[in-house]
Target: Glycoside hydrolase family 1 protein
Amino acid sequence: MNNNEFPKGFLWGGATAAYQCEGAWNEDGKGFAITDLLTAGTRRNPRKLTTKEESGVYYPAKIGIDHYHRYKEDIKLFAEMGFKVYRMSVSWARIFPNGDDEKPNQKGLDFYRDVFNECHKYGIEPLVSIMHHDTPMALAIKQDGWLCKDTIGAYVKYAKTLFNEYKGLVHYWITFNEINMTMNYFGDVYGAGILSNQTTVIDINNVSDDSMSKEKQNKRFAALHNQFLASALVVKAGHEIDPSNKIGCMIASDAHYPYSCNPINILAAQNSMRKLWYCGDVQVRGEYSYFTKSFLKEKGVTLEITEQDKKILKEGTVDFYSLSYYTSGTDCLDQKVDTDSGNFNLGAANPYLKKSEWGWAFDPDGLRWVLNEIYGRYHIPLFIAENGLGAIDEVSEDGKVHDPYRIEYLKAHTKAMKQAIDDGVDLFGYTWWGPIDLVSASTGEMKKRYGFIYVDLDNAGNGTLERQRKDSFYYYKKLIESNGACVFDE
Model:
């Protein structure tokens, strides 16, 4: 093996989510998911969630990028790039329209079976997220989503249905996407659900803990605890149904640094990293961390954890730790500094790093650092489930999309991955977010593009939906063909 090559069998690929790409939001028996009723937005104008469809309002999930009808075309393009794995999600409401129906929707089951078979046709292994933020709307209205213990049972039934239905077709699973996002503003929507006839404004510029009421904090952590229990029960069930299943967690894993060597900034950065360990310790070690009591006390949270809960968590630990990594954050408590750090509040702007058009710091070294931190703590295989660059792409006069900035980002983060592997980290795969342009989760825009494949669609839902290969498409193909080595040859 070339010293610059990645380990043999390394899983290269791309990642999407059902609600951001499928469209067909009410076709073939599918029910409403919470995410279907998120409006479009921008970085400066927050998205809105309503429990009922409003006339004259654009909901991006209605169209997505029409992957539901075009998945064969899209998977063929993924295969042309050389994908070894396609990380995707199943829409719970497409399988159980109300979340807790007695029987699953057969057309939904058939659709995903067709998708998995299409992947295997090209030698692509599906890696499936069972839950990617899209709680069925009916459960949110009926029982306030993940605040209700009954939702745990509904989720376990849904997951068991997938395990049994797709046994032999899917071997890699993720229980919850970015489960730690339930701690912040996404918790109101993706985690705790919403109340009937309530309108929720998601303010992407105001997500600090200080902005949350004690009641809201309690709801978010209670919902998160229920998700932990659901995940553990599903891991155990998945192993019983098919012992060959590999089931992982998925945690948003931004690196956090102190702004200076002032001890209060160092402690603040340590506290930020505890948000990773809070979730990772429960899902990997099967127990809450030693610091949980003080961590929750600082937030004014009271959490009830029974002895039975502890038993469930200990028996349902994951096989691998998957993560998303896009950027890093910087903590500063001793002075006022620029805090413009993108769609999410990641603290002070780091003066040593350049930013994307959406204010996300470009920090490949942070990826190496966080991989080492995670692996050093848990010593289980790691998988990068999301990494990518959102940018404004334009079709040039020559009719092509030239995106050297995306290639630069990919090269730098590939080198960081290899450095982490050389450090001793057991990293077995990488899926770029997203390999094809899709609806941005944070802002609801199409303008914020991540893909190697351009999709002709604008923020208002206008366009032909035609697919087009960008320059980065050909580079990623080259990278996969060389098993990562090409980034060191230039």
Remarks:
- The chain has one domain: 11-488.
